[in-house]
Amino acid sequence: MSDQIILNNENMVTSKTSVSVLFAGDSGDGMQLTGTQFANTVAVYGSDLNTFPNFPSEIRAPAGTISGVSGFQLQFGSKAVYTPGAKFDVMVAMNAAALKANLKNLHHGGIILANTDGFDAKNLKLAGYGEENNPLEDGTLNDYTVFEIPVVTLTRKALVDTGLSTKNIDRCKNMFVLGTLYWLYSLPIDTTIETLKTKFKKKADVAEANIKAVKAGYNFGDETEMFSQHGRFSVDPANKKPGVYRRVTGNEASAIGLTAAAKKAGLELFLGSYPITPASEILQTLSGLKKWGVKTFQAEDEIAGVLTSIGASYGGALAATNTSGPGLALKAEGLGLAVMLEIPLVVVNVQRGGPSTGLPTKPEQSDLFISMFGRHGDAPVPIIAATSPVDCFYTAYEAAKIAVEYMTPVICLTDGYLGLSSEPMLIPAPDDLADITPKYVKERKPEDPPYLPYKRDEKGVREWAIPGTKGLEHRIGGLEKQHETGHVSHDPENHALMTKLRAEKIERVIDLVPDQTIDNGPEQGDLLVLGWGSTYGAIKIAVEQALAGGCNVAHAHLRYLNPFPKNLGEILSNYKKVLIPENNYGQLIRIIRDKYQIEPVGYSKVQGLPFNEMEIEAKITDTLKEL
Amino acid sequence: MSDTNTQLTAKDFTSSQEPKWCPGCGDHAVLQQLKNAMADLNLKTEEVVFVSGIGCSSRLPYYVATYGVHGIHGRAMAMGSGLKAARPDLSVWVATGDGDALSIGGNHYIHTIRRNLDMNIILFNNEIYGLTKGQYSPTSKVGLKTVTSPNGVVDYPMNTLALTLGSGGTFVARVLDRDGKFMREVFKRSAQHRGTSVVEIYQNCPIYNDGAFSVFTDRERKADTIVYLEQGKPLVFGKESNKGIMLDGFTPLVVDLGDSSVSKDDLWVHDENDKLKANILADFFDDPDTKEDYLPRPIGIFYVEDRFTYEDALDDQIAQLQSAGEGTLEELLSGPSTWTIN
Ligand SMILES: Cc1ncc(C[n+]2csc(CCOP(=O)(O)OP(=O)(O)O)c2C)c(N)n1
Ligand code: SF4
């Protein structure tokens, strides 16, 4: 990255292609809000960005301690940004604990904006620094550029005549820091001012104080001598596709994707669900979409979540259920029923660390096996995995299309990392979204031949018979059914036939699956890095850098895990070696090995943390060496 | 089925599938009365959906010529709830057994009842697991010898209707499989009730638990062991209608009407809208075979309450939010705030 330096009046401005920032403070310091505001500003300014909130799993951890630290990381850039950054360039540390918890992830030579008011004796002690070890003084930070700012003191000074209580004034300290950061990165403050005005519409004095704090922080940048030596920075807007954008988290995107699919298909959306981290936001978002006719049902458990959805689907709704690992385990029997009934159902599984309660707030990609095999009997279902927060929209949408058009449950895999991260989404025009066409059985007259619930079309798909339709009265269930009539049948030949027909139907979903493409790198060569789901960003950057370093390596990323794209086998055979990085102990690799009879190199990371590009790049280099 | 609005008969509700229940099983009678009730209620076969879990009784959907889904063990109520929430226009019936509803499905049972969707739950209680060949169920009597309790059950049995009332039940009734006409009338009342109705049926399983309820159904004994609940009528029972029930504070007492110190006017008069009294009735849970001064087992409608249904409340919220217009796809996609890149 070559940084260009421009000299401007008093301050030199260094232009950067991308910057990763971490806002870290106590849970009560409003870091999520600050980070979100910063993200909105850079988004409107035209940067590409990716954000990732990181908060303690305890709701109210003791203030000032390491376990109470809440962080919001984002990366913005003038080129495409795929991750919040493996490490960050700038850290805002509102107190000593925030510094201590995050210093290891700050780039060498990075910038620290330290709120000195959060480094008093009490805070140092709570953070676990000894009395003599104030990191701002003892040389710990010699390798970094540290800006020491008494944020609370300055905020109080700026807001002294607002008439607000000291407690309320102190709440504005995050806005002061935000203002300073805007100055430092040459960003406009008006987006934030507008937001504050709307947010505190009913509390004009609070809005006014917050706005004053942002401005004071910004002016502080101008006035203080502190920055003169280093100057300011700027990041040009990204060369993004023109259009109207919004910012979405993966979970919001999943919710909107389902709703859009229902609208497009002319169906009512029904979500039966039970809260579970990190999937709850899907239920929460959909609960707020009643204006779009969405019905959400907060069930008593995951089993009821999936069964209410099955009931709604039988009744003719586009039914979905969302969950995370342990919840998917509970839904397994219900999914088997949906496979037998052959009715549409979308399951959005936001993966987290397992097994059992595992790492509830940390992402992992370890539900591939349960998605693929976690039902008794031969019960295949289509599986799609989202590759980015925005892709959660498209995978949910596609899952709904497949579910409705193939009359089958579909599992849509995202994870905690995608679910909570956000990025700009180019808003699609309704017409750009694929049509979704449910195939209903029409009303029948008594003189018509009897209705056959399990008669299939050329794709092997039965039609949807909605209760209330005259002449289609029929009974179905989880017991094996006779071919076509749907009557209960225990005939051995019939069971074999039905098992085959159900499997073949899922295999035919391949007709909707686009051919696998090579994301980057040569069409054939030494090494293919094959990823799936949320590792997209890290692998993308790693391969980009390895290519720049002269490696013979390519990247292909799977969205469709069942069935795999038609040409996947051929692609795999075009490289000497295949490397499969996964946030699990080796799941996709076993499926690929089994299906394509090749011996890929696995690369597992099971720390509840996403991969970073450096790890993958190193693994690429090592693997190539061994060729 | 014809297009005209002719009144259907029980035969029209009979499917092509032959019931496979054992001869003499109480399920046959229940099926017959359900079909009678549906015909009496002037229901159309296409507007009715029977959902069920797993068990002998849960096979019922196959035998009615309506729509039907036979689900998985214990989950019928969840499936029915989703169906009803999505399709309030349908008449949703749940067929479930004591094992299905109260054991594996216990959690769904209590939550379904508190939500009060307009659904009719037909609870076949045979105090045994029939389909899996005779293991004891959560309603089996203490001491019952079964394949899983060769030395007698030590689990204390569940009081179904007390649980139902405690969960906020809005229509709570009990009938006997032998009481065809009475059962039919109770089914009709339950269907007319807006809200979740529970009709518990004492159903004989001649194969694995024969005679579990004979103390309440045998001609010689029933007059003394059960009391029929009739709205506005005093609680009178006994062969010569010679016994009654009085309330002493909250304590029910069996009194002898032959004794000149009490008259019918002193008796407890049934009021199906009185929840407190319904709870006391549900606690009439003595076993006449083991307890000498037992209270008779009440049969009939214990309690009826008019409470809003889940699906109405949900639909009202949606209608209210859509009163200024339904959300469009464009609005959905663009969300609350956007920016433009040129
Ligand atoms: C998950 C699951 N566990 C266990 C079973 C086995 N099973 C089927 S029916 C049943 C009990 C049925 O008893 P009840 O609900 O009282 O119905 P009945 O057969 O007596 O009418 C059991 C244990 C099952 N089908 N599924
Ligand atoms: S086993 Fe019992 S409950 Fe089941 S069909 Fe036979 S008699 Fe009826």
UniProtKB/TrEMBL annotation, chain A:
GO terms for molecular function: oxidoreductase activity, acting on the aldehyde or oxo group of donors. CDD domains: TPP_PYR_PFOR_IOR-alpha_like. Keywords: Oxidoreductase. Residues 28-219 form the Pyruvate/ketoisovalerate oxidoreductase catalytic domain. It holds the Pfam family POR. This is 2-oxoglutarate ferredoxin oxidoreductase subunit alpha. Residues 526-599 form the Pyruvate:ferredoxin oxidoreductase core domain.
UniProtKB/TrEMBL annotation, chain B:
Residues 54-201 form the Thiamine pyrophosphate enzyme TPP-binding domain. SUPFAM superfamilies: Thiamin diphosphate-binding fold (THDP-binding). The keyword Transferase does not apply. GO terms for biological process: cellular respiration; small molecule metabolic process. Keywords: Oxidoreductase. InterPro entries: 2-oxoacid:Fd_oxidoreductase, THDP-binding, TPP_enzyme_TPP-bd. Coiled coil: none annotated. One of its GO terms (molecular function) is thiamine pyrophosphate binding. PANTHER family: 2-OXOGLUTARATE OXIDOREDUCTASE SUBUNIT KORB, 2-OXOGLUTARATE OXIDOREDUCTASE SUBUNIT KORB-RELATED. This is 2-oxoacid:ferredoxin oxidoreductase subunit beta. The lineage of its organism: Bacteria, Pseudomonadati, Chlorobiota, Chlorobiia, Chlorobiales.
